[in-house]
Amino acid sequence: MLLFAPRRASMVRPKASHGALLALFLSAGLFPVQSALALTFDEALRFAQERSRQLPAQNAAATASREMAAAARQRPDPTLKAGINNLPVDGPDRFSLTRDFMTMRSIGVMQELTRGSKLEARSARFEREAAMAEASRELALANLQRDTAVAWLDRYYQERMLEVLTGQRDEAKLQIEAADAAYRGGRGSQTDVFEARSAVALIEDRIAQNERQVATAKTQLARWIGPPAGEPLSAPPSLSAVSFRPEDLEGLIAHHPEIAVLAKREEMAQADVALAQADKKPDVSVELMYSQRGSAYSNMASINFSIPLQWDQKNRQDREVAAKLATLEQRRAEREEAARMHVADDLAMWQEWQSNRDRLARYEGTLVPLAAERTRASIAAYRGASAPLSAVLESRRGEIETRLERLRLEMETARLWAQLNYLIPVGTNDSHGLSRKLP
């Protein structure tokens, strides 16, 4: 069972004599009704997604890869060539461009005729990069939702612990008054007074420590959602169920964003293999050239073809293909190992979450009520002069520890719930229909 923070009244209760007049003003809209909306769990997730810069970064990476994929489908740009051939450097025709019949001023263009299969292989490589960027975005979103959920829940339970300590401190202060009264009436000792004050001081020290933990939890939540982290929190979501069954875990892990990223890396390695295999077939280049000679001689045209000579494929191209195949096998093995690890780790988390729920039921049904009854019984015995004050203080310390331990266990259970429920990104629509905007 979860503890809920009491809601504070948003307005001061009016006097009975002015109630009708105030109601009339409120109905006429003359006085604004103040009501602070508490920060819901769903809102925190939505704010975190709106504020994140990692998600747009992955979108930009995917866009960049797609643009490169489109560019990779095009053949290389043609090359313009210009020059002077066979220019005399001595004799009577030295440095003349027109007197020697072999001197030519040439201009030409060369184009590499890249195979279509190779262009497609290069483009596919960038398409796989784009797909990996999209998978990385899903992974970033899952991590963002999980971390935001944990930060929200941590703050919620730290505040509940602070409420427990504050309530126990107020009750312990009553013991100081009772000890003082008993001492003045000759029914108690001064030692009891000091012991009661020491108990209150210890609780106040724990309150100071817990206040620091609440401030830290707010800071962690602000890391993800910004200024709304300072708002009061609403009731937490139901933590009694997760989004999958243990028998479905292995199939679910296949869609886990981290596994999806590794699968896309495997596809990139497969694209590298295809590209290396395409590189085993050389591309032909063609060159057209026009050469101008002196006016007494004929101008000339040339056409040339060139092709790389892969004379040692077994030691170069074949080894490049083998290297890419080895990398592909590495990526496949990494993905399979990561999937097995996730199944084992997530199943262990589910088992711990289930065990914690059983323990929480025991705390709720047995341990906390027994600790409260012990405290009430010791107080009654102290008032009847049949038990010392130390018994009251000891039972109160035991009740505080029991209540705090229950909340710590519930907080740990909530963290496990968040980690299990956000293995895969889920929608962040606000189930309460609120439409506040991120400041």
Main β-sheet description: 4 strands, antiparallel
CATH topology of the domain at 38-78 and 116-186 and 217-283 and 312-421: Outer membrane efflux proteins (OEP)
Number of beta strands: 4
Q: What is the overall shape?
A: elongated
Which stretches are poorly predicted, pLDDT < 50 over at least 5 residues?
Answer: 1-35, 428-439
Mean pLDDT figure = 84
Which value, in Å, is the CA radius of gyration?
39 Å
Outline the structure in words:
- It is a single chain.
- By secondary structure, the protein is of the alpha+beta class.
- The chain has a domain at 38-78 and 116-186 and 217-283 and 312-421: Outer membrane efflux proteins (OEP) (Up-down Bundle), CATH 1.20.1600.10.
- The chain is built from nine helices and four strands, in the order αααββααααββαα.
- The protein has helices at residues 19-28, 41-51, 54-72, 116-184, 190-225, 249-253, 257-278, 317-383, 389-421, and strands spanning 79-85, 104-113, 284-292, 300-306.
- It has a four-stranded antiparallel sheet, with no helix packed on it.
- α4 runs antiparallel to α5, α7 runs antiparallel to α8 (317-383) and α8 runs antiparallel to α9 (389-421).
- Residues 1-35 and 428-439 have low confidence and may be disordered.
Provide a brief overview of the structure.
This protein is of the alpha+beta class and 439 residues long. It has helices at residues 19-28, 41-51, 54-72, 116-184, 190-225, 249-253, 257-278, 317-383, 389-421; strands spanning 79-85, 104-113, 284-292, 300-306.
List the helices and strands and how they pair.
Blueprint: H1 19-28, H2 41-51, H3 54-72, E1 79-85, E2 104-113, H4 116-184, H5 190-225, H6 249-253, H7 257-278, E3 284-292, E4 300-306, H8 317-383, H9 389-421
Antiparallel strand pairs: 1-2, 2-3, 3-4
Helix pairs in contact: 2-4, 3-4, 4-5, 4-7, 4-9, 5-9, 7-8, 8-9
